[in-house]
Amino acid sequence: MIPSILPTYSRAPLTFVKGEGSWLIEADGRRFLDLGAGIAVNALGHAHPKLVEALTGQANALWHVSNLYQIPQQQKLADMLVELTFADTVFFTNSGTESCELAVKMARKYWYEKGAPERTDIITFEGSFHGRSSAGIAAAGSEKMTKGFGPLLPGFVHLPWNDHEALTAAINDKTAAILIEPIQGEGGIRPLPDQCLKGLRDLCDEHGILLILDEVQCGVGRTGKLFAHEWAGIEPDIMMVAKGIGGGFPLGAVLATENAAGGMTAGTHGSTYGGNPLGCAVGCAVLDIVSDAGFLADVSRRAGALRQSLEGLVAAHPDVFESVRGTGLMLGLKCKASNIDVLNAAYANELITVPAADNALRLLPPLNISEADIAEAVKRLDAAATQVEKAS
Fold first, then answer.
1. Which residues contact 341 (CB under 8 A, 6 or more apart)?
2. DSSP annotation of 53
3. What angle, 0 to 180 degrees and rounded to 10, lies between the N-to-C axes of helices 371-391 and 293-316?
4. Which of 140, 220, 232, 239 is nearest to 186 (CA)?
5. Distance between CA 27 and CA 235 in Å, rounded?
6. Closest CA to 106 of 122, 95, 125
């Protein structure tokens, strides 16, 4: 008999009932240190007072009106994002998946309006993850994502990761855009080197095509910059955002230049919930904190301390871990042992991590995690690794 909740998740036998900062409290009272942050969503941890204040204050005033009307909170958040980024305009969604859908539509509409409707192909890369909608799975292209869901949305060209020759050869008169994550999350925390991101920008400029960045997981302060592409000193034409921007409230966005968004006129896209007063009130509170230069410097400082400790952990457990990779507080432990064995051992030591492809574990703590909690997390990871060693 099928469960009342569609069984599309392999859920851990854990039921969390309360969160406090970097900690989750299980129904039985156990306290888990959270290095997952809801898969990079709880950027400021659990129950951050300024986010609680923003949400409850807005909830007591107005929940929803729809985009048929002006929404002051949405306007404020859009203005903040335009001021802080490359973007000239913003559309608000409820998720990263919805942001992908619009990014694809926007790129194709751009070329249609330019009088080149044949330019529909979007180049994507092996190991990518862009959500689980029809466009998202077609963009990723992996068998794991697409098997059983055909026919797939056409118009995506899948290339190997980090193959410059294949990329150059793939661009032709049907190419509309290149879509890439500056750091692959689900793909195993694989950062794109800054010089490669610069090269992609140059390649797009050379051929007059659009560069779409998926910063759903790596954006909103996760790397120590407000957005990961800033490290490379480049700007995209279109960018997908979600996860951390709502601090735990479902919120996403597509940011774009005026040029890239020129074809998106009244009636070409919409969302019933996207950009509602509740989500945008929380988003404003998140962005107000995370965009502060001092806060971002602290993220980099915490990230340096965590990475140094993780390098020591890898050296201490060479049969369990292979390497540390990633940027800022978007780190991955490439495992030699089964990453699921390490994940379960971490659960046994009351520590939350997130599995990923390439036998990796993701460490995505709240951006404001304390030094004491970092030290405790590494201590628990060390205990988990020892447990795995003893079991082998």
1. 388, 391
2. H
3. 20
4. 140
5. 45
6. 122
68/265 Cα distance (integer angstroms): 15
pLDDT band for 162, please (50, 70, 90 cuts).
Answer: confident
**Contact call for residues 95 and 279 (beta carbons, < 8 A):** no
- CA 336 to each of CA 12, 118, 312, 324: distance values in angstroms, whole numbers, following the listed order: 22, 46, 16, 12
Answer yes or no: is pLDDT of 5 > 90.
yes
Phi, psi of 142 (to 5 degrees): -70, 155
What are residue 363's DSSP bridge partners?
A: 331
Amino acid at 152: L
Q: Tokens at residue 218, please?
A: 């790596």
Amino acid 334 reads K
Q: What pLDDT sits at residue 392?
A: 83
For 178-212, give the DSSP string: EEE-SEETTTTSEEPPHHHHHHHHHHHHHHT-EEE
The reply to whether the predicted model has a pTM over 0.85 is yes
Count CB atoms within 10 A of the CB of residue 47.
13
Q: Which helix (H) or strand (E) holds 305?
A: helix 293-316
Rounded distance between C-alpha atoms, residue 220 and residue 84, angstroms = 11
Q: Write phi, then psi, for 118 (nearest 5 degrees).
A: -75, -15
- Tokens (6 digits) for 274: 């996207």
Strands of the sheet containing 360-363, edge to edge, are 321-327, 330-335, 360-363, 354-356
Pairing of strands 156-159, 175-180: unpaired
Place of tokens 């995505």: 364
Element (DSSP H or E) covering residue 311: helix 293-316
Token digits for 34?
């959270």
pLDDT in tens, 310-358: 999 999 999 999 999 999 999 999 999 999 999 999 999 999 999 999 9
Which residue type is seen at 153?
L
User: Closest Cα to residue 327, out of 223, 194, 190?
Assistant: 223
